[in-house]
Amino acid sequence: MWRRCCGSWRGAEAGPSLPPPGARRASGDNRAVIKPEISPSQPAAVPVVTELDNGVRVVTVPMPHLRSASVAVFVRTGSRNESARLNGISHFLEHMAFKGTATRDVQAINLDAERIGADMNAYTSKDTTVYYLNGLGRDAPRMLEMLADVVLESTFPEAEIEREREVLLQELVEYEEDPQSVVSQLLDVAAYGKQPLARPIIGTRRHIERITREDLVGYVKRHYAGANLVIAAGGDVQPARIDALARQLFGHVPRGEGSAAEAVAHVGGLQSRRRAGISQVYSSIGLPLPSMRQGHHAGLVAATLFGGGMSAPLVDEVRERRGLAYHVASEAEVSDVHGLLVIDAITQPQKLLEYVATVGRLLKEQAEGIDAQHLERARNQLLVQAVHKQERPFSAIEAAAEQLFVHGRLIGADEAVRQIEAVTAEQVRAVFEAMLQATPAVGLASRGAVGEVLQALQAAMA
């Protein structure tokens, strides 16, 4: 998963904006490769996966040393699966799921979760809608019952639809008034043009105003099918109990057809918007990376190597050496059908052209050769991220659901480590070389004219 609405905006494949792991070392070529310790003090969680007759998959990640648990329903549908007419309906539906079911109204839904101290929430991304509860392990079965109710038994009362429509329009205004959110959407359009992946998760005002109850009911019937569902629980949970309850609650859901993802082509170009009231320029640059199905690990390493820490070439040169921006970073956005290196920065108008020229030059330098220390740093940062995911219930089940949707199987901790450690300098260099052949996608928000930004970037990359 990558971008979300009603959640953190950027996805989980980003390199961390922290100093790299390991001690500082003197320069020179004769040094030991430092690797983080990846053997946790507690036994590694062993996920359990079963599949119901209707295609629903159930995954549990028991962590007996914890007392908390995360329970979630993952639905493989998002904004990329919507028609142009119903753009935003996945997100609209996510909101409406909590507004009343056959047995509970919105007040009862909220109170039932909070009476057991649980945090109930949801988010929508380009490819997935997720409903989840975080609470105590002893309440995991009850949390699963609550989620089944809102996901499968929502009634979409007309009065609630109209009230929530107003809430969504207010949420849309928040996004439209946030320069970073605006630039993120502009980058999507610059990267993918009129393809479904470029559509905003929240939709537009026109879409939000015209979605009807009939649209919501029809969308559920088409997409909330067994083939698109993963039921997951992690933490202090009992796999046999969760599996039996999931069969009882979700076993009747029609199998349906799994959501199909269209192939995505990188377009490139510049999309900009003038915004009164801001003094700086918000910039996002995007370049194509391999998708998850194409083998994305070299792309993850490349993104983390380039701008995933204070010592990374991008951050060191742009911020530490040149003072061109306070915030600058790069991350990899990847899914089963797309990959994008995203380079974000906030800079001053008079420094914008120097900034993009610097980015172009740094990209070209990586295509000429990969520094061994930075390759080591990037691998280790990704290894630490992988360990952190394994140790956090929601992160663990989120990763498991994504693996089931994309690969049809789970990728174990040891395999994940091997995939990262197997990435070579030449593979990373080739990723950068391929990016230099593409037209960059650029999204900008600024108070005034931005100049020949795309041309300056391409000239530096040539």
TrEMBL record:
PROSITE patterns: INSULINASE. Residues 57-204 form the Peptidase M16 N-terminal domain. Its cofactor is Zn(2+). GO terms for biological process: proteolysis. InterPro entries: Metalloenz_LuxS/M16 (IPR011249), MPP/UQCRC_Complex (IPR050361), Pept_M16_N (IPR011765), Pept_M16_Zn_BS (IPR001431), Peptidase_M16_C (IPR007863). Residues 210-382 form the Peptidase M16 C-terminal domain. One of its GO terms (molecular function) is metal ion binding. Belongs to the peptidase M16 family. PANTHER family: METALLOPROTEASE, MITOCHONDRIAL-PROCESSING PEPTIDASE SUBUNIT ALPHA. This is Insulinase family protein. It comes from Azohydromonas caseinilytica.
